[in-house]
Write a structure and sequence with these properties.
The complex is a heterodimer.
Chain A (H helix, E strand, L loop, with lengths): L3 E3 L4 E4 L4 E7 L6 E7 L6 E6 L3 E5 L2 E6 L4 E6 L8 E8 L7 E2 L3 E6 L1
Parallel strand pairs in A: 2-11
Antiparallel strand pairs in A: 1-3, 3-8, 4-5, 4-9, 6-7, 7-8, 9-10, 9-11
Chain B lengths: L2 E5 L2 E4 L5 E8 L5 E7 L5 E9 L2 E4 L6 E6 L2 E6 L8 E8 L8 E2 L3 E5 L1
Parallel strand pairs in B: 2-11
Antiparallel strand pairs in B: 1-3, 3-8, 4-5, 4-9, 5-6, 7-8, 9-10, 9-11
Classes of the chains: A mainly beta, B mainly beta.
């Protein structure tokens, strides 16, 4: 079993839709949770990070962590074509800040 | 503000040739530095990390090595490339001390022929 599982997609939605991206994990030592956005042929760009259960909001993005269920989500409201990218979840237990990544979900937002 | 540079952006090398990829960080001191490889359609795999000059930790056995000759410089090397070394190589940095997120460069796409 992989430490981090992420739905690979691809996910195709119309502009303006609410998008839900999800990851599950098995290691209860993970304390820090991140979402990265990666455009084609570019490096991952940090979108949000959190270290507690609950919701964290930043503009159109909301990160949700449920440590009891070992489940994290990223919600994108009012999705735009510019949101079309691969979204990677990542987690860390803190030691030397080593990250474990999900395989990524490819999202396409069409006008 | 901090920036991270990787070069070259694209590289095509024959099997058996040597490799040197360079990463430099600006605008911060004593960062943690990381090398990752990303295979097509897959997540990132941590290859090496460094918490200081000359301090390198390897995460997976492989045909590659890393060095950190200066505080903000991280180099990925190989003496003889294999076909399986093809991939997208990403460098990242984070601050030291209390946990801080990692920030990535734009990567080097390496193709082995």
């Amino acid at each position: 079993q992989k430490e981090v599982e992420q739905d690979p997609g691809p996910l195709s939605v119309p502009e303006g839709a609410i998008v839900s991206l999800n990851c599950t994990y098995s290691n209860s030592a993970f304390q820090y949770f991140m979402w990265y956005r990666q455009y084609s042929r570019k490096g991952p760009e940090l979108l949000m990070y959190t270290y507690s259960s609950g919701n964290k909001e930043d503009g159109r993005f909301t990160a949700q962590v449920d440590k009891s269920s070992k489940y994290i989500s990223l919600f994108i409201r009012d999705s735009q074509p510019s949101d079309s990218a691969t979204y990677l979840c990542a987690m860390s237990s803190g030691g030397y800040n080593k990250l474990i990544f999900g395989a990524g979900t490819r999202l396409a937002v069409h006008p | 503000s901090q920036t991270i540079h990787q070069w070259p952006a694209t590289l095509v090398q024959p099997v058996g040739s040597p490799l040197s990829l360079e990463c430099t960080v600006e605008g911060t001191s004593n960062p943690n530095l990381y090398w990752y490889r990303q295979a097509a359609g897959r997540g990132l795999q941590l290859l090496f990390y460094s918490v200081g000059i000359g301090q390198i930790s390897s995460e997976v056995p492989q045909n590659l090595s890393a060095s950190r000759p200066q505080d903000r410089q991280f180099i990925l090397s190989s003496k003889k490339l294999l076909l399986s070394d093809s991939g997208f190589y990403l460098c990242a940095w984070s601050g030291q001390g209390a946990w801080q997120p990692q920030h990535f460069g734009d990567g080097t796409r390496l193709s082995i022929l």
